[in-house]
Amino acid sequence: MTAPNWFIGLVVPPEARWHELRSPLPAGVRPYHPGDLHLTLAFLGACDEGAAARAWRAVAGLTAAPLLVRAGAWRAMGAPQAPSAYALTLAEGHDEAARLIRDWGGPARGAAGLGPERRAPLPHVTVARSRRRGAAAGRSAMAEWMAAAPLPGRPCRLRELALYTWSRRRGESDAPLFELVARRPLAPPGPQLDAEV
User: Fold this and answer.
1) What is the pLDDT of residue 40?
2) SS3 for the chain, per residue?
3) How far is CA 144 from CA 17, 87, 97, in A?
4) How far is CA 177 from CA 36, 57, 156, 191, in A?
5) How much is the pTM?
6) Alpha carbon 69 to chain centroid distance?
7) 29/140 Cα distance (integer angstroms)
8) Residue range 142-150: average pLDDT?
9) Which residues pair with 105 in a beta bridge?
């Protein structure tokens, strides 16, 4: 049985098209479903549903302006010798996203009964996952891919916060990995002060 997997993140809207990779991925690397793209603020991992709900309530009263982000570079995620995923770091919006991770992640993890995150904030948006960890040929092919693949040209504005878990359809062809259990706007309702992107 698969362990639970919960996290709170900012929704990357599919209309931003960050999932549209303009270079074919090497064999063994699968792109994320458009609805899976997100920027994690609090990783909760294998906690139970009640703990995840408490984490979500802990950030219910927190608000922030929509976050404008622009892709900065490709980055392999996970162990250096066995990357499990490939992501985009941020050229714009990095500091603001790191601040949200620090300020919102701690209360969320604490409410779920978890200790503080020990790693320094690294805002990123995962766009692909490796099916074969540790294969030297696959790592080399992805390193070459990242060196040549164009970045998404459009910035996007992240306006929603969501609580995620595994999708019940995970494993089906072209199905999303994650399910949005709850979602809300980052900013309270009112006049939109930010320009559209």
Assistant:
1) 98
2) CCCCCEEEEEECCHHHCCCCCCCCCCCCEEECCHHHCEEEEEEEECCCHHHHHHHHHHCCCCCCCCEEEEEEEEEEEEECCEEEEEEEEEEECHHHHHHHHHHHHHHHHHHCCCCCCCCCCCCEEEEEEECCCCCHHHHHHHHHHHHHCCCCCCCEEECEEEEEEECCCCCCCCCCCEEEEEEEECCCCCCCCCCCC
3) 23, 15, 28
4) 7, 24, 22, 34
5) 0.91
6) 13
7) 12
8) 95
9) none
Q: What tens digit of pLDDT does each residue of 103-133 get?
A: 999 999 999 999 999 999 999 999 999 876 5
Q: Please calculate the CA angle 193-156-120 and round it to the nearest 5 degrees.
A: 100
The answer on pLDDT for 193 being more than 70 is no
**What would the two tokens of residue 21 be?**
């990779």
Residue 70 near residue 153 (C-beta atoms within 8 A): no
70-114, pLDDT tens digit by residue?
999 999 998 888 898 999 999 999 999 999 999 999 999 999 999
Report how far residue 2's alpha carbon sits from residue 10's, in angstroms, rounded to the nearest whole number: 24
Q: Do residues 35 and 19 touch, judged by C-beta distance below 8 A? A: no
CB within 8 A of 25, min separation 6: which ones? 31, 128, 142, 145
Q: How far apart are CA 90 and CA 3, in angstroms?
A: 30
**For residues 20 and 13, what is the distance between their CA atoms, to the nearest angstrom?**
12
| Measured distance CA(99)–CA(95) in Å, rounded | 6
Terminal-to-terminal C-alpha distance of the chain: 42
pLDDT of residue 134: 53
